[in-house]
Write a structure and sequence with these properties.
A hairpin with a 2-residue loop joins β5 (about 115-125) and β6. The longest helix is centred in the middle third of the chain and has 17 residues, at about 55-75. The protein has a single domain (about 5-140), classed as Thiol Ester Dehydrase, Chain A. Strands 1-2-4-5-6-3 form a 6-stranded antiparallel β-sheet, covered by helices on one side. The protein has 2 helices and 6 strands; from the N terminus they run αββαββββ. The radius of gyration is 14 Å and the shape is globular. About 30% of the residues are buried. It is of the alpha+beta class and about 140 residues long.
Length: about 140
Amino acid sequence: MLNRDQIKEIIPHRDPFLLVDRVIDLKPGETAIAEKTVSEDEFFFRGHFPGNPVMPGVLIIEALAQTGAITLLSTPENKGRIVYFGGLKNVKFKRKVIPGDILRLETELTNVKTKFGVGYGKAYVGEELACEAKFLFSFL
């Protein structure tokens, strides 16, 4: 298991934009399972939406991307590199994510080359699928 301090040793994201609280399973360069506890104090709930707080879909995608970056950058050969979005395919949102939810983020890197790659991510609340997407990325 990796905590936030250990995650910050792998990826460059910092508060308020670090959207992964802990990694509970990691196979470097292959797969990861992480969690984000969605608290009512999240910065994005102030405006999305007052009185009906919902985690923005793009931030669920970002949390999945950060989990994918942890998967990739946890290998010795990729340590210190930065991962960038190259594209998204087949993005589907299946349920709202609200305060009190624990978002389970599962990623699998399916094709990684020297500077580019493809991965797949799914976000769950409990056993219910909240979001899924195919990621295209580059890394320097």
